[in-house]
Design a protein that fits this description.
Length: 206
């Protein structure tokens, strides 16, 4: 059996791309106006002009649309390349903070987590979206290894996970705001741990 393409991956450009863009834009507006609780396939169809059966066939549910939207929206977080590992981590932490400072971004994250708790399929999609996004920004860790700033064998994925985790704890568990202190503490903790070989490399010191 042919494996079904991931959301948004089939036939880039043309009608498929326009359909995806219309539905995701509709979802973003609906989340801004009513939040996740008020989001329905019928509302998405009405706002986007895409037939509800098409949305259901491609995304299966409103949760599937939200996960796809989050994957697209998170691409606005660029991968820093300052030439210095500590600065790259700080800039990435700043970008994550800026992303989650937007109410729509918080709505997206909360909607995904809520949906994943009740639907294993959505949980898989959420996990895949976060893994894919994390792998993109691991480039800054690989560059640091190449420059000799962190030990060879450092697990780049774990470095980025350690940097990011405090933001989600603050948002989803503590229900608090993100501030500059959290940005600096998260970046510095990840930096020192990576330099010290906590993430799989042999200690580099410093």
């Amino acid at each position: 059996m042919t494996e079904r393409p991931q959301h948004g991956s089939a036939r880039p450009g043309g009608r498929t791309a326009r359909t995806r863009a219309a539905v995701l834009a509709a979802a973003l507006h609906e989340l801004d106006e009513t939040g996740f609780a008020g989001l329905t396939l019928d509302k998405l169809a009405a706002r986007s002009g895409v037939h509800v059966s098409t949305i259901r066939r491609r995304w299966r549910s409103v949760e599937g649309v939200v996960v796809d939207l989050m994957a697209q929206h998170s691409k606005t977080i660029a991968t820093p390349d300052s030439g210095e590992f500590r600065q790259d981590l700080y800039e990435l932490a700043e970008a994550i903070a800026g992303f989650h400072a937007q109410p729509r971004s918080r709505n997206l994250v909360e909607a995904m987590v809520a949906a994943a708790a009740y639907d294993p399929h959505i949980a898989d999609l959420v996990r895949g979206a976060f893994i894919a996004r994390t792998e993109v920004v691991t480039a800054l860790v690989h560059r640091a290894v190449d420059r000799g700033e962190v030990p060879p064998g450092t697990d780049a994925y774990e470095v980025i996970a350690a940097l990011s985790a405090p933001f989600y704890y603050r948002l989803l568990i503590m229900r608090g705001s993100i501030d500059e202190r959290l940005v600096r503490a998260s970046a510095e903790a990840a930096y020192r741990a990576a330099r010290g070989g906590v993430f799989g490399g042999e200690g580099a010191g410093g």
